[in-house]
Amino acid sequence: MTVHKNLLTAIIRFLLIKDSRSFPPQHSPHMTGTLPPIAPAATTGYSAADRIFFDNNGYLVLPNFLAPDHVARLVAALERTAVRRREAVRTNAKQTGFTQVTGDSTRYFYILDDDPLFLELLDWPALMPYVHGLLNAKPHHHGSDGIIDFGRDFMTRHGGWHLDGHDEGYRGLGWPIPHLQLKIGYYLSDMTQPGNGNLLIVPGSHKAINPPSLADMSRPDHMPGELQICAPAGTAILFHNALWHTAAPFASPAHGRKMLYYAFEHPWMVASQEHWGYTKEFYNQRLSPAQRKLFHGWVFDPPEQRWG
User: Fold this and answer.
1) Would you say residue 40 has pLDDT above 60?
2) Res. 143: pLDDT tops 60
3) What is the pLDDT of residue 44?
4) Is the pLDDT assigned to residue 30 strictly greater than 50?
5) Distances (CA, A) of 238 to 58, 193, 199, 218, 252
6) How confident is the model at residue 251 (pLDDT cuts 50, 70, 90)?
7) Is residue 291 in some structural domain?
8) What distance, in Å, lies between the first and last C-alpha atoms of the chain?
9) H/E stretch holding 119
10) Mean pLDDT of 123-134
11) How deeply is 151 buried, as exposed, middle or buried, from its count of CB atoms within 10 A (0-12, 13-18, 19+)?
């Protein structure tokens, strides 16, 4: 009875996200077209039902995870940093990580030292129970990036389906690919409607024993079984490294998206160049004791001798 109740809770809590596909009228709750009036994840917290849903579907959607005022401050930081990063690209100045500029759009990587708000979000208290429960009790940071996209720069973009991780998504380890990274995407702009560059996923694809065909991955319309996640600003989306995903096409040049991505890996991995991207000052002076544990001991000066 307890297992059944947890499963029902997972269905009600996480499947009431607007689906961009066209379905006939349904009475089942997971086909509802609007977000449910649920409590923020920070007050409901991680549960066994979350793990069941994640294991079976490869993702979780947590609406209203970040408060509106927090989102506003993060957006301001995202925009400030984009201006600095674009100037660094223009002048060929040294920067932490790297920056991709496409027209007026900007995506930049290794963001933890760009703004204190980005570093604060690294081990956000409401998030860590999910990271511990879904990945590892002693996780390590894997990567981080910020995105400001304008539809006018990407109206011809389509496809882009991929897995996360080195070696084309850890494919060399065989199928199904194991859970090695947990990705967290934060919507900082309203994406309650499709066509805003929303995260596009294929639920359950993390369990696939064969990759999709090249034709399916490059088709300009839809991947079979895809789900476009439509949710408000402040939503957090957690997903498995082997979940097939991409950014949905923009429906209009006037549309756009603002997002942050963070990722965690197991403590026995070194799967990201970001570990070498920060200064000794960053590691030694700007991390809290809890944040230091999210990195290997050898990045510090002197090195820390500890488990993981």
Assistant:
1) no
2) yes
3) 57
4) no
5) 8, 19, 11, 25, 27
6) very high
7) yes
8) 38
9) helix 116-122
10) 98
11) buried
Say what angle helices 48-57 and 2-14 make with each other, to 10 degrees. 70
What CATH number corresponds to the domain at position 8?
2.60.120.620
Decide: 307 and 138 in contact? Cβ < 8 Å. yes
3-state secondary structure of 260: strand
Give a yes or no: residue 24 inside a domain: no
Q: Give yes or no for residue 270 having a pLDDT over 50.
A: yes
Tokens (6 digits) for 42: 């920070």
Which position has the token pair 């002693």?
138
DSSP state letter for 290: H
- Residue 256 CA neighbour count, 13 Å, CB half: 15
pLDDT in tens, 44-74: 589 999 999 999 999 999 999 999 999 999 9
Number of domains composing the chain: 1
154 and 210 in contact (C-beta within 8 Å)?
Answer: no
Residue range of the domain that includes 42: 2-18+37-295
Do the Cβ atoms of 105 and 95 come closer than 8 Å?
no
DSSP characters for 61-75?
EETT-S-HHHHHHHH
Could you give the CA distance from residue 179 to residue 61 in angstroms, rounded to a whole number?
A: 18
Q: What pTM does this model have? A: 0.86
